[in-house]
Design brief:
The structure is a single chain. The chain has 180 residues and is mainly alpha-helical. The protein is built from nine helices and four strands. It has three domains: 48 residues, no CATH class; 80 residues, no CATH class; 45 residues, no CATH class. The strands form two sheets. Strands 1-2 form a two-stranded antiparallel ribbon. A two-stranded parallel ribbon has the order 3-4.
């Protein structure tokens, strides 16, 4: 975290780490997130914000919450199953809006909400990428080999990661080949 990949500086938010650690299912699968030295490395990648930025983010969260809840309800009425955004996810969304940042997530709700907001790019100058996009960014920067990429995806599958329904299409779009 905190590294630059294809002109994007990668960070996380402390609230996302805290939410992750508080989730017994996730913590059981990813114990390393809470154990030094990996936990310390992850905390080093937390985005540092000043008081003015934090105020803008809190204001943006208040503005976005009604829209986000309505968006989720509308999806559910259309039988598109997505979950309500947690406070940490809403903070991530508001941070991306305020900073004009890119969100890296496989969470369908966040992906759909960002894509919908981006229809007005002047007010919502952010974007969203998925895990396969991030792998492609690392590979294009020679920070990851093709073998490491395929080993990573193999590991995700072997560990029964909850990859998005579109992961195979995302893989083909990014790497120009089918996943075997």
């Amino acid at each position: 975290m905190g590294i630059v990949v294809q002109n994007h500086q990668m960070f996380t938010l402390s609230g996302l780490i805290d939410e992750f650690i508080a989730n017994p299912r996730l913590l059981a699968a990813y114990q390393w997130v809470a154990i030094a030295p990996k936990a310390d490395d992850l905390r080093l990648g937390v985005l540092k914000l000043n008081a003015a930025q934090n105020r803008k983010i809190e204001e943006k969260k208040k503005e976005l919450r009604p829209y986000v809840d309505l968006f989720v309800n509308n999806c559910l009425q259309r039988r598109t199953i997505i979950s309500r955004l947690s406070n940490a996810d809403l903070t991530l969304l508001a941070t991306a809006v305020v900073l004009g940042a890119v969100i890296a997530t496989d969470e369908r709700a966040l992906q759909l909400i960002v894509k919908d907001l981006r229809e007005d790019p002047e007010d919502y100058p952010m974007d969203v990428v998925c895990s396969m996009d991030v792998l492609a960014m690392f590979e294009k920067e020679a920070m990851l080999t093709k073998e490491q990429r395929t080993n990573t995806v193999d590991t995700w599958i072997r560990l029964r990661e909850r990859l998005p329904a579109t992961w195979r299409a995302d893989y083909k779009r990014n790497f120009g080949e089918e996943y075997d």
